[in-house]
Design brief:
The chain has 3 domains: 122 residues, Rossmann fold; 62 residues, Helicase, Ruva Protein, domain 3; 114 residues. Helices cover 50% and strands 10% of the residues. It has 13 helices and 7 strands. Keywords: DNA replication, DNA-directed DNA polymerase, Nucleotidyltransferase, Transferase.
């Protein structure tokens, strides 16, 4: 396959973006060393060196700029020289990962005005890849189940497709949890849908970050309860998201941040909170979430009491009022 001189890729899903770049590199039939930079960080000397300096000994490089929509406007004119000719040693990728509107991807005006971007459009070097949609869930699930030799009870595949988050990384995480829960079973039953803890609009880290920032626990609890937990059936999905964030921070605290795929600004926030909590604090976070869940399942706490208890425990964990107590 004859590769492009450079590639613009618009996709709102970070994991699909990563996979598509890797697929394009593999389909080229050539060996590339991938160097990744981020548009919401300073693109300094290492970026320009990787983009412009060719070497017979260094081999071929794929220079990938993730979240390129966040690049400062003054960057785009500076790329004219680097993108004006074909560099056999370097394949530049610029990944626009902002949300699409009804017309498709939103292109920064400073980029749209550049001659090389117009060239990308004419030569089909600008690729648009929609994020994961409900229409994609059926084929995704069929492929996932076939690779693992799993079957669905009638109606379960449709229910799972409706419940999975429209984000490939998080959908993969939910399917991994489901696979683990199956054990030796090879048929996914309706009761297994309870393992999927995603719900649109919930953000477990936002909840933790609000408490860590010293906000009043009662107001945080009311906000979560009013906006996200409008029904008892939403308590367990929310606890699932909270535990998901705790596991991410545990991996970060254990030195595995390089394996956590997150935008840099999000990763930095989670690294800061993971450092603040440490192993003992993260353990207390797990214990508080598990205790809230156990209280509901055992009948010793109503869902609202369990959430208030959880909020108070976490407020104490983050150094709040030591006298704050949860009811029940």
């Amino acid at each position: 396959m004859k590769r492009p001189g450079f590639t613009f890729l618009a996709c709102p899903d970070p994991e699909i973006t990563r996979e598509r770049v890797d697929r394009l590199l593999a389909e080229s039939g050539q060996q590339f060393v991938k160097e990744v930079f981020w548009g919401d960080e300073e693109l300094s000397a290492p970026f320009w060196s990787a983009l412009t300096v060719g070497s017979l000994f260094a081999g071929q490089r794929a220079v990938v700029v993730r979240r390129a929509e966040a690049c400062p406007a003054e960057l785009w004119p500076k790329l004219t020289s680097a993108l004006s000719g074909f560099n056999a040693s370097v394949w530049p990728f610029f990944c626009l990962e902002g949300p699409f509107d009804r017309k498709g991807p939103k292109i920064p005006k400073a980029l749209a005005d550049q001659p090389y971007f117009k060239v990308a459009g004419k030569r089909k070097w600008f690729l648009t890849v929609p994020g994961l949609t409900r229409r994609d869930m059926g084929p995704l699930l069929a492929d996932w189940a076939a690779r693992r030799r799993l079957a669905f009870e009638p109606g379960v595949a449709e229910g799972l497709a409706a419940a999975l988050p429209p984000d490939l990384a998080r959908a993969d995480n939910e399917l991994a949890k489901l696979e683990l829960a199956l054990g030796e079973r090879t048929t996914i039953e309706r009761g297994d849908l309870a393992e999927v803890s995603y719900h649109e609009g919930m953000d477990g880290f936002e909840f933790l970050d609000a408490l860590a920032g010293g906000r009043d626990p009662a107001s945080v609890w009311r906000e979560i309860g009013g906006k996200q937990l409008a029904g008892e059936e939403m308590i367990f999905p929310f606890l699932g998201l909270l535990l998901y964030e705790a596991r991410i921070m545990w991996r970060i605290a254990a030195g595995e941040a390089g394996d956590v795929r997150l935008p840099p600004y999000v990763l930095q926030k989670k690294q800061a909170l993971a450092r603040r909590l440490g192993a003992s604090g993260l353990t207390r976070l797990f214990e508080a979430a598990f205790a809230a869940e156990a209280g509901i399942k055992s009948g010793t706490r109503r869902p609202d009491q369990a959430m208030e208890y959880l909020t108070a425990e976490l407020f104490r964990l983050f150094g709040g009022n030591q006298g704050q107590r949860g009811r029940g």
